[in-house]
Amino acid sequence: MTLSSTFDRRHGCWQVQHGPHPAHRCRIQGPPSALFAWTFLPKTRSPGISLNFRPRRVHFTFRVNMPSFGHLHVHWTVVVAVLLLLLLLYVTAGVVYRLYFSPLAKFPGPRLAAATLWYEAYYDVIKGGQYTFKIKELHQKYGPIVRISPHELHIDDPDYYEVLSSRTSPRNKYQYYVDQFGLPGSSFSAVDHRLHRLRRQPLNLLFSKASIIRLEPTINSIIENLCHRLDEFKKSGQPVPIRLAYQCLATDVVTLYSFNKSWNYLDDPDFAPNWCETVKATADMGHTTKQFPWLFPVLEALPDSAVAAVFPGMLLLLNWRRSLAAHIQKSIDSNAKGEDIGGELPRSIFQSLLESNIPKEEKTLLRLTQEGQVVVGAGADTTGNVLTITTFHLLSNPDILAKLRKELEEAMPNQFQPAKLSVVENLPYLTAVVNEGLRLSYGLSTRLARIAPNEVLQYKDWAIPAGTPVGMTSVLMHHNETIFPDSYTFNPNRWFDQPDGGRALERYLVSFGKGSRQCIGMNLAKAEIYLTLATLFRRYNMTLHDTIRSRDIDLKYDGFLPQPGPESRGVRVIFS
Ligand code: HEM
């Protein structure tokens, strides 16, 4: 009998024609090993094959004689065993290379971390955001430079931060790190320093100090929106979930500046808890998606209901991306029609990007949506976190609070007048408070790796090969007891008592990172922080409600953004 077979894509199986009539067509089903043999080992379809089937039935059983090499009959278990052996050899050779022959083999660190990325995955994915703390322990054991993975080094030496995060020498990012957000189109994820410069250059102007000063009335009007909401809580005596409120403030500012249309989350009666959960879930998922970056395309291809069942955080993220894409599409449409949707407002970020002379392929909806996700996401939770941590420490330290209030009363005689940035950012005690708040809120709790693509970096006696990712972490910097003694205590005097007002010490304050990849939103974030703290602490009396430092404030896990433990009830404040 002559057999001909074709692969039926629709049903995902082989069809065999075993006679001239269409009724002689059958679908092959069988154990995976036999299907594998049929598909990939064409010899099995040679006359050596024998089939038992019942014509006219779609499903039939069959038996495959496994491939024959001359007189040798090879059973499928042997094929699988050989494949497994090859895999084992490959893995062993890889581990031996990593441990003994890699250019990083000479660096100190645990052998297991040098052998496999599963070491990091164990601490971050399985134990949940614990690698930052483990890295600290590794430094205590192995010294200031440690090999923390087969490919990456970590340094704990505050004086090295500015060398690593250079502004003048090229610094690439680490593909493994940026993959965690699946946003290759953003400036944040531009691995190569030249592509990064191309993307960042049109944004620089929009986030310059001068641009942020133009934005000051807008920021103040959104702070007034917050105050209206706080007045409602003041009347009712209900505690305010302050982190949510601050995050809504930061989101309203950044979305207004991005799209000329604020998302007005401050108007939400509960301060948009779903939005705050979205940002947290997106950042939290980073540990998993860093290890398995293919998850993004797979989950994006699945129906929402399936994603929600497997990865609820991912669904929040996908919905956020869709809504961002809709906002950016509006900017693209109005730009195409030559409309100016901003009115009195300064040019929005995305209008300006569309009008800039970056190449056309950098103006696609997909790329701009990815840039939008970074700008909105980066602008919301980070700023909200600094404001929350600073508020908590001020309310827990009556002496510090009294000193701050005195300075504010003198600088702002009318408590209901909007704060002026030029005044408040020059207040020495407020500046010390802001610096201390930034220090204890860390910015990002994960390490930021930089790569010198063409330069051998020298750290003490160690020559770091060009192209090696080297990370440093703000959490370790900010708790360096030599630079910040008694580092867990909120003490603005460590800045205020310095003869230069703490300027020199700011070298070690790295919440915004440093160098060419430093946070682009730093001027905006600082303006929001100064104006909000000055307005609220000048205008309101506040007390903490059921808030405990060890439960609700202290860093317990690195979710990219610093997070307290799962038992946290958040910081709640009563206004009077
Ligand atoms: C207190 C608030 C903020 C903190 C602590 C902070 C911290 C950081 C840090 C540490 C980085 C570097 C990340 C890395 O190296 O991978 C970064 C990057 C970035 N931040 Fe911020 N950020 C804050 C506020 C903002 C705001 C308000 C915006 C925008 C509205 C913003 C937009 C960005 C962008 C676009 C990047 C990527 C920059 C680049 O790669 O060139 N951030 N931020």
From TrEMBL:
Binding annotation for heme: C519
Under SUPFAM superfamilies, the record lists: Cytochrome P450
Q: What is its main location?
A: membrane
| PROSITE patterns according to UniProt | CYTOCHROME_P450
Q: Pfam families, from UniProt?
A: p450
Q: Where is the signal peptide?
A: none
* Gene Ontology cellular-component annotations: membrane
Q: How does it sit in the membrane?
A: Single-pass membrane protein
What family is reported? Answer: Belongs to the cytochrome P450 family.
Name of protein: Cytochrome P450
